[in-house]
Amino acid sequence: MRAALRSRPLLAGAAILLFWIACALFGSRMTPLDPYADDLLATLAAPSSAHWFGTDQLGRDVFSRVIVGARDILIVAPLATALGTLLGTALGLAVGYFRGALDTIVSRVIEALQALPLVIVALMGLAAIGTSNFTVVLVIGFVFTPLIARTVRSATLSEVDLDYVAAARVRGDSAFAIMFVEILPNVLPVAIVEMTVRLGYAIFFVATLSFIGFGIQPPSADWGIAIAENYSLIGSYWWTVLFDAGATASLIIAVNLVADGLQHLAEQ
Amino acid sequence: MFAAMLKFLTKRALLSVITLAILSVIVFLAGQLLPGDVGRAVLGPLADARSVAAFNHQAGVDRALPVQYWDWISHFITGDMGRSFTYRAPVAPFVADALLNSLKLAALAFVLVVPLGIAGGVFAALRVGRWSDRSIVLLGQTLGVVPEFISSIVLILIFGVWLRWLPMSADWPEGAGPLTQIRYLILPSLPPVLIYFGYLARVARVGTIEALDADYTRTAILKGLPWLTVLRRHVLRNALLPTIAVAASLIGYLAGGLVVVEILFHYRGIGGLIYSAARAKDFPMLEAGVLSIGAIYAIASLMADLLSSALNPRVRAGRT
Fold first, then answer.
1. How many domains does chain A have?
2. Whole-angstrom Cα distance, residue A250 to residue A66?
3. Mutation site for A-interface testing, chosen from B146, B281, B303 by largest number of A Cβ within 10 Å
4. Disruptive mutation site among B17, B141, B150 for chain A (greatest number of A CBs within 10 Å)
């Protein structure tokens, strides 16, 4: 804990992350103006004391929208990461425990999927099953599963030949019990560190997918959507995209600082 | 020794073929997830049942899955990638054009990021632990996690809107010469450069630090060789071998990883093609695009392995 308090990048990341989590939780009560209210008499107004970050094409207050825009991405990305971690840990445990043919097949499939950029895999999946917050969680969760499984698999491989696993086998424990009761607690730290790293990627992907129209859907005030809707106006109305871009970047950098910091702590 | 290397490479090439075969099955199955039938999805809810059935029969999607897969893949390897649902025309020419465009963009990003990454990594290694080392590492790490569409927006604002140095779209005028094309491609090539700078710099930095610590470097210094000679002949030569192999595999990432940049800058590359095919649910086009990206990635990583085995005596001897 004391080591965590000494790490400045970790603290800075945690502070920014907490700020955005607060916005996601209480944003709708914090905003100075209604983020969803059109004002057709004040469209595309430059930043001023009335509208700190200006207004968009429909006259909506950009500052208020940036605040509430944190919500959906901070629901979808963590859920997707949790799903991927759950499935990936189970798969990694099974593959590492049983080894043999299962290991070979799964490893080959993982390798094949790695020949593609994750955005393309996600695009293919979403084109096939349709886009909603729920399917985005599913697709990113499934895309992450093999990546997390790979990490958990190698952690499991270094556990299976240890005495406590052999003892459990001699006791006659079922494979299921050995994997989840005996081995899991020992590979859990690895899985958790992997999860924080994946959360950064998940936010990266949800933001990117929302920007290209395959992620969070309007009328959400999501940052990626706001940038997609307004970037053709970038030549004259920079404030309609720059603040959303800054918010996205700050959230992703914050999560990565926290993940890096935790990784260093885990290694110590 | 040559036989061992040949054996290693044959094995490696065979593995790539297996990987691609598995990938083709995955891509094919993803295409089958489309809810309802293909004809209905393509022709829309207003089309009558007979034309939907006719479309399905013509497209061959009313046959058993293994038959469809075999039909698709056996034609695919011969270059016949099927017919686009949207354009009602062969897919292959679209994919070939798009791949060529993406390779142009990827090549430009590549020639920018490789020297920059290596220079950054070597510079940081020479100042390891100091302020400048830590800022290069932190900068590379930070830039590497920011999505391309965010960095693109910032770059467009700075170089396109405020300074007016570069065009904001990659859509160059008809008949533009190579130099004009490069001018139009500079801005779109920068976001991937920012993403991969830190990755390359990290590899180059670690390699350089190891080489600086190695016995042969100490010997060279003690022999009284000038520092720059030691750096060039002993440190860099050893440090950069792994970096070169990493750089080769970068081509694979770059060729397929430009989806967002191509959409944002209106560039007709393979990423843009896959994106519009996904929007239109044009599965033959989507499958062909995705599988070509996989093939390029497999070829690039095979080349990377070739390079590192040619450069690394341990791999060359087949002891991996």
1. 1
2. 12
3. B146
4. B150
